[in-house]
Amino acid sequence: MSFPVQSVFFTLKVSVLLGSLLGLCLGLELMGLPNQWARYLRWDASTRSDLSFQFKTNVSTGLLLYLDDGGVCDFLCLSLVDGRVQLRFSMDCAETSVLSNKQVNDSSWHFVMVSRDHLRTVLVLDGEGQAAELQPQRPYMDVVSDLFLGGIPSDIRPSALTLDGVQAMPGFRGLILDLKYGNSEPRLLGSQGVQLDAEEPCGERPCENGGICFLLDGHPTCDCSTTGYGGKLCSEDVSQGPGLSHLMMSEQGRCFVLVARQLPEPLAFVPLAGRSAPHCCWQAILLPVPPAVGQAGSRGHPVVGGTLTNASWFPVPIIPLACPFCTTICHSGRWPCRAASKREA
């Protein structure tokens, strides 16, 4: 199932990649050679957890990552199938899969996340989420193995691998960066046929005047919202220019909209939010607020109304949702949206 967001005026796509912001990621270059692999400390995908990374490739098939329960029932496999990303997994011997809508063998950077939440698993590719859900008797995934990236070692017995034929799958060919379990970098236990420290897309530090580099639609992009500058590289002085709205993330992991200058009409912020705060801002749109705004929401919180004024911050709390990546509009009263100063944020 897919969760698209329809834009009224324009769509602001944001991938909040902490590894790109901090420059701490360890890159891998994989050539698709026989018996290539990188082995990481076990990812606990049993109940609730997220795994994410960036990758770039020009091939249509290959194994991205794999883990299992040691040859019994449960496994999770992420691979390329006909140029698309396929997530295939099993819990208590009940199996399902999802296939991405877009192709990724275009030599561009892509961001992928696997989000586990008990019986529900979501594949997120470049901000678009597709969910799959199982109804096994056992409500968790049993994970025994370490995480294998790009291939499976040939010295592992086939009987110890739950998914038949996974060891014979072609190895991934391309670059993988910024592997994260939640917000943490996993420990690399070993590798073979893999070159470490591959080039990071923001490694050349293209942003000027303190701008922050991140990936947008697979390309390095500059966040200039805190610099007083604009343009592609944060090199243009926009202190006297017309205002724009910027998406920001606080240290507490909440999302904010900053309206730099007064706008001609009221606007509402519509986040596409999941339960994991570091990945809360996948896509956003700005649209006019209907006349009904200004009334208290259903929870008794005031709703954003009137014209947004100079440098006003509007917190959007990240609330755990039963459906990750569902769209919720602030002025509907379902979220407590209130004006706050930058100091309050």
UniProtKB/TrEMBL annotation:
Q: Which residues form the Laminin G domain?
A: 27-202
Query: Which segments constitute the EGF-like domain?
Result: 198-235
Keywords, A to Z, come to:
Disulfide bond, EGF-like domain, Repeat
One Pfam family matching this protein: Laminin_G_2
In terms of superkingdom, the source organism counts as Eukaryota
Its GO CC terms are:
membrane
Which ranges of the sequence are coiled-coil? none
UniProt-recorded name of the protein? Neurexin 3
Q: What is this protein's gene name?
A: NRXN3
